[in-house]
Structure formats: structure tokens, C-alpha cells
Amino acid sequence: MNQGRIWTVVKPTVGLPLFLGSVAVIAILVHAALLSKTTWFSKYWNGKAAAIESSVKVG
């Protein structure tokens, strides 16, 4: 493993939950930003795939 020595500084029982927790928090923040800053994302989540086609302007 390339970064195997990190576990001599941080215990895996602490480091892995912190890492996985931070990934989950980032994913939640990205989804929250998409929901609050776009008009099509909430429609997409509700099953209206045509909302994406109508919001994307080609050409």
C-alpha cells in the first residue's frame, strides 16, 4: 500500500470513520447545493427526466 505508514500516526479505528464520515458529509453538501441552486434537480429526483432536457439549451 502506497500510504500504509499513515496508520502509524492515526489509528484505523479513528481514521477510517473520519474519512468515511467526511465523504458522506461532502456528498450531502453537494446534493443540498444542487437542490438549492438549480431548478431541474428536484424535478429530476421526483422522476421528471424531461425537466433536464427542457433546461439544457443546445447550440
From TrEMBL:
GO biological process per UniProt: photosynthesis, light reaction
Residue spans crossing the bilayer: 14-35
Gene Ontology cellular component list: plasma membrane; plasma membrane light-harvesting complex
Keyword presence, Protein transport: no
Segments forming domain Antenna complex alpha/beta subunit: 4-41
Any GO MF annotation of the entry: metal ion binding
InterPro entries to which the protein is assigned, alphabetical: Antenna_a/b, Antenna_alpha, Light-harvesting_complex
Subcellular locations according to the entry: Cell inner membrane
Alphabetical keyword list: Antenna complex, Bacteriochlorophyll, Cell membrane, Chlorophyll, Chromophore, Light-harvesting polypeptide, Magnesium, Membrane, Metal-binding, Transmembrane, Transmembrane helix
Topology versus the membrane: Single-pass type II membrane protein
Signal peptide (UniProt feature, chain positions): none
Main location: membrane
Function (record text): Antenna complexes are light-harvesting systems, which transfer the excitation energy to the reaction centers.
Annotated protein name in UniProt: Light-harvesting protein B-800-850 alpha chain
